């Protein structure tokens, strides 16, 4: 086990120049138009998901996603860049989830391009290994997934608020696109930098309160200030301000919670509970064997891991009651902890014919230990733990 309302402000400105389960209802489809991100409410009242950055992670999509599933499996059951992972073992493992061999190999290729895994040697069939960067990221992300929601946010009443203005005719002074490539005879309009700003704000956990006013809980303006400088410093006529604000009235239709689709988020938590409640009963009755445990446990984590990315973790007094996150988290922890050893055993059984020393490398994260370390030591402001995950001998 791996152990709108009036507000006061101060700020800076700038200008410039799984396979389907056999328990419970089917998983509801949730779309992410810009990638993964916090659940926000658009001006027309329709919920959307502002993107939240996750460098190197697979882009979210509707329907089966072998790349996303493989990322979950690698994060859950491997913790060493010394392990040599044969491609045929990966194919066999993903087959447990109904993933075809071509799709499994495509997932391997995409994760290689993203730097999460690398090819070891030049043999055929190829052998992969996790990169050191991926190991560090997996540990942080798994700690984040398992500790998220363990205790209420320590609330100071402060919000980082961003306001920006980009003329419709704006274009970079250098004549380059945001990616740094010169355009072919076409001037870039203000739409491209505006889209880049919205994408960056979503990646940092901001939600749109009004057309060009975005907010997020907290008091650290440095990351968003740097992001805006990177995008807008060379855009003609662009102006922006980053402020630390307090709302005179936090609750009600004109308060900050209006930026978020909390009803939609609550429905997502309730759907998670509905989907896995029967599985929890089966776990408690001892009716889940190793074969089912691997798919079930991985499916639970693959479903849960979206919540830290779409839940803005608002202070408790801004949430509708009853708020279902704690019930969903307790269900996830119970299943995840109870099935860890069984899932690990099944993974070893499936991989060993293609990976003889699989048992030396395959392990599993233990949710209860991560949760205990969080309750004792707390977590950082960004929700990521440090090195509080030990190794499993």
Layout of helices and strands, plus pairs?
Elements: E1 7-16, E2 39-41, E3 47-49, H1 66-77, E4 85-86, H2 87-95, H3 101-113, E5 117-120, E6 127-130, H4 132-147, E7 159-165, H5 191-203, E8 207-210, E9 213-217, H6 222-232, E10 238-247, H7 262-284, H8 290-304, H9 307-310, H10 325-338, H11 340-351, H12 358-361, H13 367-377
Antiparallel strand pairs: 1-10, 2-3, 4-6, 5-6, 7-9, 7-10, 8-9
Describe the fold and architecture:
This protein has 393 residues and is α+β, with helices and mostly antiparallel strands. It has a domain at 7-55 and 154-258. It is 40% helix and 13% strand. The protein contains 13 helices and 10 strands. Strands 1-10-7-9-8 form a 5-stranded antiparallel β-sheet. It has a 3-stranded antiparallel β-sheet with strand order 4-6-5. A hairpin with a 5-residue loop joins strand 2 and strand 3. The longest helix has 23 residues, at 262-284. The protein is globular and about 60 Å long. The model is unreliable at 1-36, 42-63, 175-187 and 371-393 (pLDDT under 50).
């Amino acid at each position: 086990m791996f152990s709108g309302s009036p507000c006061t402000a101060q700020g800076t400105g700038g200008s410039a120049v799984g396979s389907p389960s056999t328990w419970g209802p089917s998983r509801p489809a949730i779309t992410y138009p810009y990638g993964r991100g916090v659940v926000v409410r658009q001006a027309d009242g329709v919920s959307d998901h502002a993107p939240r950055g996750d460098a190197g992670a697979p882009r979210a999509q509707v329907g089966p996603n072998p790349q996303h599933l493989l990322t979950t499996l690698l994060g859950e059951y491997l913790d060493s860049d010394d392990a040599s992972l044969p491609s045929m073992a990966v194919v066999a493992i993903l087959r447990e989830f109904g993933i075809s061999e071509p799709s499994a190999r495509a997932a391997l290729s995409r994760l290689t391009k993203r730097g999460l895994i690398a090819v070891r040697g030049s043999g055929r069939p190829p052998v992969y290994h996790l990169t050191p960067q991926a190991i560090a990221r997996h540990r942080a992300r798994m700690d984040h997934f398992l500790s998220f929601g363990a205790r209420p946010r320590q609330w100071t009443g402060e919000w980082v608020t961003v306001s920006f203005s980009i003329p419709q005719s704006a274009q970079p002074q250098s004549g380059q696109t945001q990616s740094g490539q010169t355009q072919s005879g076409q001037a870039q309009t203000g739409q491209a930098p505006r889209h880049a700003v919205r994408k960056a704000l979503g990646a940092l956990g901001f939600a749109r309160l009004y057309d060009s006013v975005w907010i997020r809980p907290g008091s650290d303006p440095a990351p968003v200030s740097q992001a805006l400088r990177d995008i807008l410093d060379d855009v003609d006529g662009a102006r922006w301000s980053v402020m630390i604000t307090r709302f005179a009235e936090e609750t009600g239709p004109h308060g900050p919670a209006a930026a978020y689709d909390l009803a939609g988020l609550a429905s997502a938590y309730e759907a998670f509970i509905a989907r896995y409640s029967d599985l929890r009963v089966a776990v408690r009755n001892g009716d889940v064997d190793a074969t089912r445990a691997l798919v079930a446990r991985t499916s639970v984590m693959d479903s849960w891991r979206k919540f830290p990315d779409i839940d803005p973790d608002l202070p408790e007094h801004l949430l509708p009651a009853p708020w279902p996150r704690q019930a969903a988290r307790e269900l996830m922890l119970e299943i995840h902890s109870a099935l860890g050893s069984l899932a690990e055993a099944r993974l070893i059984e499936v991989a060993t014919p293609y990976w003889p020393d699989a048992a030396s490398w395959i392990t599993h994260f233990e949710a209860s230990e991560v949760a205990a370390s969080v309750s004792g030591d707390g977590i950082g402001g960004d929700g990521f733990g440090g090195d509080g995950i030990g190794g499993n001998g």
